[in-house]
Amino acid sequence: MELLQDVPGPAAYLAADDVIDHGHPLVRETAERLRAGATGPYDYARAAFEFVRDTVPHSGDADDPRVTWRASDVLRLRTGICHAKSHALTALLRAEGIPTGLCYQRLTDEAGGNPLVHGLVAVLLPGRTRWARQDPRGNKPGVDAQFSVEREQLAWRVRPEFGEADYPVLYAAPPPAVLESLQRATDRPHLWQLLPTAL
């Protein structure tokens, strides 16, 4: 899908802040380790994606009550929901100069109830003119997200008949509604009550 940047130009999609803290020593160390095995930006981006997808369990899948939101904390504690894992992947990619933004879907349960906002990232690799969405939430039975800049393979496809949607905005920083829910939550069950149901 065509993504619309909320900030023009690439600079904001390389920036560090309190959430995407890619200057943190743990983020830098992790990026350096991943870069050592990569032959170029594409290989590095895929390795970073697979690292976050596969070695940081989604806290809902793992039944982990801890809530993380800062990229370095996600990497240190090895837990987070989709939003937190997206922050970690964004930090690892920006640490190596790859423009990366945050994007979102509105999803529901199987019956079309309990809507929630699901977090993704989008990358702009050298030589590419289009942002490519990636979903690092973590695979499980029925979920097979893979890294690709050619053919999108996210965890879920939206079902418009249930009010699900792909949001077209590419954010340089997490929207306040998402970030505030992560920061205010005392544990994951509390977080489920706070997360926005739409953007």
From TrEMBL:
Residue ranges annotated for the Transglutaminase-like domain, each copy included: 29-136
Pfam name, any one: Transglut_core
Transmembrane segments: none
InterPro entries: Papain-like_cys_pep_sf, Transglutaminase-like
Matching SUPFAM superfamilies: Cysteine proteinases
Protein name from the UniProt record: Transglutaminase family protein
